[in-house]
Each structure stands twice: as C-alpha cells, then as structure tokens.
Design brief:
Blueprint (H helix, E strand, L loop, with lengths): L2 E6 L20 E5 L2 E4 L13 E3 L1 E7 L6 E7 L4 E4 L7 E7 L7 E6 L4 E5 L2 E6 L7 E5 L2 E7 L5 E4 L9 E2 L13 E8 L2 E6 L3 E5 L7 E8 L7 E7 L2 E6 L3 E6 L7 E3 L15 E4 L2 E8 L2 E8 L3 E3 L3 H10 L4 E8 L2 E8 L2 E6 L4 E5 L9 E7 L2 E7 L8 E4 L7 E2 L2 E2 L2 E4 L11 E10 L7 E7 L6 E8 L6 E3 L3 E2 L3 E6 L6 E11 L3
Antiparallel strand pairs: 1-44, 2-3, 4-37, 5-6, 6-44, 7-34, 8-9, 9-10, 10-11, 12-13, 13-14, 14-15, 16-17, 17-18, 18-19, 20-21, 21-22, 22-23, 24-25, 25-26, 26-27, 28-29, 29-30, 30-31, 32-33, 33-34, 35-36, 37-43, 38-41, 38-42, 38-44, 39-40, 39-43
Length: 507
C-alpha cells in the first residue's frame, strides 16, 4: 500500500464557495421594486462553514532574502487587556491617542450610552451632548486641539486647558450643525482648516486657524452626481468627500470664502455606506461602499480605487446590512490590518498578505474603534467597545502580550481545504504532526477533522505545543479529509505546517 508524507502549510483562503453563501440565513425580503429586491439586513447572517477558514489566526509569509525560500506560518492574534476604566457601566464612543500633544502618548476617550463624557485617562474632561462619533486633532495657533462631533449635530473642542478647561461646544451659528444641517461623519484637518460634511453633500471649512469660527458661505458641494453626503477624510493634500454613490476630491486653492477647489478628473463613482465604515492606514483609505450596480465591497484608495474584498466577504456584508457595518484599523506583528465588523462578526484584511481572516471573541467585540501609538518606548494599540458596558479602554502591549480578551479565553481555529492527494481512493491516516514553535507553557491544541465535506466534526484529541513533538497517530480512514486545528490556550501559537502521513489504498 503506497504511503505519502507531506507538509501542508496551516493556511487557506477564507472561503471558496461564495455560491453557497448564506444558504440558510433568514434575512427577510420585504418587496420587489423597480430598482430590485429589498432585503432587510440580518445581523446574525452566516456564511457557509465550508472550505478554508482562519479564525483568530492569520497567515504570515516569511521570505529568506538569501535563498529566496518562502514559508507561510499560522499565527494567533493577540488578545485585548484592560488599560484603564474611565466609565464603568458605559459603552465606548471614541478613542484617540493625542499625538500632537507632547509626549504624544495621552489616550483620550469618550464614553456614554445617551450623552458622552470626554476622558483623559480616567479623568473627566467635560460632558458632551449626544454620543461622540470620533475624536480628531489639529493645532490652533500653538495649541494642540481636539475636535469631537456628536450624534446630535453638535461639535466640541478641547485644548488641554490652554483656552478651555473642559470639552466646549462650538457655538458659531454658521457651523453647519448649528444651522439646521445634519452632520455627516467626522472632521478632517488640513492647512489650518477644519472640514466636515453634511448630508446634503456640502463640504464645509472653518475659518483659517480656528475650530470655533465658521462662515455661512464657506462650503463646496460634492455634486458631480445627485447624492447624499456621508463623510470626509484627508488623503495626502486632498480632502476626499464621500457620498453614498460617488467620491470627490478637494484641494486648498487659496480661494475665499471657501478655500478649496474640486479636482473633477479624480472623481470616481464608488460611494461609501456610512462614516462608520471608513478608515485609514497611513496614506491608504479603506471603506465599505457600493457601485451603482449594487452589492457591498471593501475598497481602498492609494492613488487609484481597488476592491480588496472577495465575493464571499461581499456576500456576508450585503446580507448583514449596511447599518451593521463598522470599520477601523491597526498594526501589530509588523503588519497592517483593516477590521470590518459586520454585526457580531469581524472580518480582517491583512494589507501585506492581501488575505482575509476572521476574529471572534467570547466577550463583546472590544475593537470597535482603535487608535495606536508608537513613539519612544511606548508602542500600544488601544480600543473601545460600543457594545460592552465595561467602560474600559483596552490595549495590546507588544512587550507583554496576552491571548485572552478581557480575561476570557478565545480559540484560534485554522480549517484547511479538503485533502485527497489527487485521488478518491481510500486513505489511511497514520499521523499528523504539528511543526511549530515550542511554547514555554502548556498549550493544548485540538486536532479535529471532517470526512464528509464539513458536515460532522470529529475530534481526535489534544496535543501540547510545549512538547518537542506534538503528534497524533491512528486517525482513521477516509477518501477525503478536512483538517481543523484549534488552540484556546493563553499562549502564543506559531505553526509552520502539518506533517501528514498517510497510506493510499487500492480502491
């Protein structure tokens, strides 16, 4: 009976069966109209569980620059622990590391279920009516200043006591939120101007070097197509003005009273679903949007528009419903990640690997908004949750990683594509050895498998990644097999491959 021994990287594309997406989901169709079928978003939407899945772990490609060899490792994501607790009993609204205020490590946050309070660490810096939607920063004169829009169309500012002791409302009657307009998204700051959109598609600019003074005619309209305003973000020396169906670019042309001018040739017909679904990594902008043909996708812009989501991800986003989607971004392990929350599920895109994986947690989702610092000896990721009422700011400290979320263990799950060695003849699975970093503490890891196209999961048992040879033997027989590796220990996990030994039968 011929035998084989192969090494298989513990890596797989997220899913290859987009056609099976949401086959059993229960989103309701409420009618058929001229523009298509109207579907109510299903917050619990699920996709097929078949084929490759990486949950709470990700692929990392390491290249040998001398030999040119490449290895693909499966690495568990780090967990989130408490940094501080500004507002126990409250959900989080926004978090920001105040980079422009020396030494650039101050963590500011907003918490509150109906109205927000701004916190410097755990110290209150004033109440805000409505819920804060973001915290951004600029410099007014010589004063580093925070700008905070709110859900009640007010906006607030705070300059660490230079001119105001607590968060203070912008009261100028010409500020769009005070002029009976509905704010869209957060502030973007460029060349001494604070910019913000309203839902009519207008982009507003403050007076020069001011956050408090506004002029009634200092706006430009993103009106290349009939549309509604969603929000703006700075891209290099441009302000990108996102609407529901298209995006326009404005640059500082030194005009009066509105200093900006549009760059018509840069307009593209891809919109954004909401300001909550808009984030940035360095100079690259990411958002969840749609084309006029429908559906939802994750797009990026770094000089040109690219779609970065695959059909399976798009299908889940569409059924989850646009109102349930939020995005944020962060970096760790030397890689950049875009986090896309679709209701209770989080899909994570690694920019360097150009690959998707998924995060879940036994806790409430703790990473609704992230902000990071990397200066001097301080290198942290911070986050808040808008569902947990713990009132905490969470952190990832790369010098002292944990692999729990708020003290709760989570499981890293790597599920591989079907394996049959190119034949449907019966295989007798002799052994599976995990080729991995040997952990310094016990790290129980479950080896499981399907023999029926991901219908019935069978658990062989546990091996320990702290042993020199974590190996399983006598794993039965099947014609085809789908392997699943699960690790829920509070330890790192770095796996290079599975070494699989099997004998191939004659029929």
């Amino acid at each position: 009976m011929p035998s084989k021994s192969v090494r298989v990287p513990l890596a797989a594309p997220y899913n290859t069966r987009a056609a099976a997406n949401n086959a059993a989901q229960t989103a309701g169709i409420i009618g058929v109209g001229i523009v298509g079928i109207f579907i109510v978003g299903n917050p619990a939407a699920t996709s097929t569980r078949k084929d490759g899945r990486m949950i709470n772990c990700m692929s990392q490609t390491v290249s040998d620059t001398i030999t040119g060899d490449r290895k693909i490792y499966c690495v568990k994501r780090p967990g989130w622990e408490t940094n501080n607790t500004p507002a126990s009993g409250n959900i989080g609204n926004a978090v920001h590391v105040w980079a422009g205020l020396s030494p650039g490590t101050k963590v500011m946050s907003c918490f509150g279920g109906t109205n927000s309070t701004l916190y410097d660490g755990t110290s209150s810096k004033g109440a805000i009516t409505g819920k804060a939607t973001a915290i951004t920063e600029t410099v007014i004169g010589a004063n580093p200043t925070l700008a905070i829009p709110s859900t009640d169309n007010t906006a607030w500012y705070y300059d660490n006591g230079a001119t105001v002791a607590v968060a203070t409302k912008i009261t100028d009657a010409d500020f769009p939120g005070n002029a009976s307009l509905t704010l869209a998204g957060s502030f973007s700051h460029i060349d001494g101007y604070a910019c913000i959109m309203d839902t009519t598609g207008k982009l507003w600019a403050s007076d020069l070097n001011s956050i408090t003074s506004w002029t009634a005619t200092s706006f430009g309209s993103a009106n290349a197509f009939p549309d509604i305003g969603i929000g703006c973000i700075r891209y290099k020396q441009y302000i990108m003005a996102f609407c529901a169906g298209h995006t326009e670019f404005f640059y500082n042309a030194g005009q009066t009273p509105f200093p900006f001018q549009k760059s018509p040739t840069m307009t593209f017909k891809v919109g954004c679903i909401s300001a909550n679904a808009l984030t940035q990594v360095a100079d690259t902008v990411f958002w969840c949007g749609a084309t006029p043909q429908g559906g939802l996708s994750i797009f990026s812009y770094d000089g040109s528009v690219q779609r970065v989501s695959q059909p399976e991800i798009d299908g889940i986003l569409t059924v989850s419903g646009a109102s349930n989607i939020q995005m944020t971004s962060m970096r760790f392990f030397g890689r950049s990640f875009v986090l896309c929350m679709a209701a209770s599920r989080t899909f994570v895109y690694c920019i360097e690997e150009k690959a998707w994986h998924e995060w879940d947690t036994p806790s409430s989702v703790l990473w609704h908004r992230c902000s990071s610092v990397s200066t001097g000896s301080a290198m942290y990721n911070y986050a808040i949750s808008n569902t947990s009422t713990s009132g905490k700011v969470y952190q990832i400290n790369p010098t002292s990683l944990v692999f729990t979320d708020d003290g709760n263990a989570f499981s890293a799950v790597a599920q591989l594509l079907p394996m049959d060695f190119g034949t449907k003849k019966r295989k007798f699975w002799d052994s599976v050895e995990i080729i991995c970093d040997i952990e310094t503490a016990a790290s129980a890891t479950t080896i499981s498998y399907y023999d029926d196209d991901y219908q019935t999961l069978q658990n062989w048992g546990n091996v320990d990644l702290s042993n020199s040879r974590p190996i399983a033997r006598r794993l039965g027989a099947s014609r085809r097999r789908e392997w699943v590796i699960t690790n829920a220990a509070n330890t790192p996990m770095t796996i290079e491959a599975l070494e699989i030994g099997a004998r191939i039968g004659t029929s």
